[in-house]
């Protein structure tokens, strides 16, 4: 007979694995009716909670998790390869999970830890700004936040981070367009559940406008997700309501390539009648026609540092560390000077 596990209890009670664990471990942040429902299922199926997170920290484990926000993203592809190579040298295996669920990313991380019995975890992207000490402590394994924004309300002694200054980088992208004569500058950013990277890059754009005395135009904004199709559709909406735009800042190269396709369909030649600047410098950016001006992130350095920091913490050779890498403006052919 199949042994009932924590995922079965969660399914039968109609809650998440993290909620079942909180009930088992006596956390107060669970509604009474939810707690009672979980206990009823546990009693009915005679479940013995011996797989809670505090019992999952096994020194013999060689599995490291990489939690990636959303579906496949070209920006993370090279990063994953570097992380895998670095960890493999020390005898660790990598398990990758793409989180497409609507619940909190930190809860997805917890469920990943519980299911795979991970020794450590690296989170690529995602929204962790509101994560608390309690959230991190219940993971009970070392965690590194990479290419996202770090928790603002949690102790930095509990986690590591390897990031860039997203606001500063977006400011520089917008400033470049200003320097070459553009004043009608739109923004293609992320919305919905993205409260971290997209928000900070938007703030960088707005800060440049404010410093240069350029009024914020609500119709110069459009929102999408980190896909080619989303960038394409969002740009069509943007150009329909703001045909006077001469340039667009796009918060990812993937979206920027989609934006360029939409612009051409609107009869806007790039860069002759519309300049586009992206973000990340993925491999596609240099080979697109025209090659994409963008903000380069040092992908391999970020990935290598993330893996090495995690290894050092796991092996007890160092405490948690926090690194901020500089970005670089890469000028190609998708932006033109306004005379």
From TrEMBL:
Residue ranges of every copy of the HTH lacI-type domain listed in the record: 4-58
Transmembrane segments: none
Domain of life: Bacteria
Transcription regulation among keywords: yes
Keywords, ordered alphabetically: DNA-binding, Transcription, Transcription regulation
UniProt key word Transcription: yes
InterPro entries in UniProt: HTH_LacI (IPR000843), LacI/GalR-like_sensor (IPR046335), Lambda_DNA-bd_dom_sf (IPR010982), Peripla_BP_I (IPR028082)
PANTHER family: HTH-TYPE TRANSCRIPTIONAL REGULATOR GALS, LACI-RELATED TRANSCRIPTIONAL REPRESSOR
The name this protein goes by in its record: LacI family transcriptional regulator
């Amino acid at each position: 007979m199949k042994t009932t596990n924590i995922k079965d209890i969660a399914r039968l009670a109609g809650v998440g694995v993290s909620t079942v664990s909180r009930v088992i471990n006596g956390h107060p942040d669970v509604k009474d009716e939810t707690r009672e429902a979980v206990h009823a299922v546990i009693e009915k199926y005679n479940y013995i909670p011996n797989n809670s997170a505090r019992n999952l920290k096994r020194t013999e484990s060689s599995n490291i998790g990489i939690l990636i926000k959303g579906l496949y993203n070209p920006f993370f592809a090279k990063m994953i390869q570097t992380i895998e190579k670095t960890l493999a040298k020390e005898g660790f295996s990598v398990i990758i999970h793409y989180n497409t669920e609507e619940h909190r990313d930190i809860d997805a991380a917890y469920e990943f830890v519980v299911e795979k019995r991970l020794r450590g975890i690296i989170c690529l992207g995602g929204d962790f700004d509101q994560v608390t000490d309690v959230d991190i402590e219940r993971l009970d394994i070392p965690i590194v936040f990479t290419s996202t924004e770090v928790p603002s309300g949690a102790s930095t002694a509990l986690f590591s981070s390897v990031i860039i200054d997203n606001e500063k980088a977006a400011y520089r992208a917008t400033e470049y367009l200003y320097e070459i004569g553009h004043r009608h500058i739109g923004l293609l950013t992320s919305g919905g559940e993205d409260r971290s990277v997209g928000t900070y890059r938007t703030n960088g754009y707005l800060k440049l406008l404010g410093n240069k005395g350029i009024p914020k135009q609500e119709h110069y904004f459009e929102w999408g997700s980190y896909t080619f199709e989303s960038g394409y559709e969002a740009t069509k909406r943007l150009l329909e309501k703001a045909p006077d735009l001469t340039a667009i800042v796009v918060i990812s190269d993937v979206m920027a390539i989609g934006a360029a396709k939409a612009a051409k369909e609107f009869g806007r030649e790039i860069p002759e009648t519309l300049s586009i600047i992206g973000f990340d410098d993925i491999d596609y950016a240099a080979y697109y026609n025209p090659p994409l001006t963008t903000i380069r992130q040092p992908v391999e350095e970020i990935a290598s540092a993330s893996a090495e920091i995690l290894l050092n913490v796991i092996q007890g050779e160092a405490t948690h560390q926090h690194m901020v890498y500089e970005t670089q403006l890469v000028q190609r052919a998708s932006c033109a000077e306004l005379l």
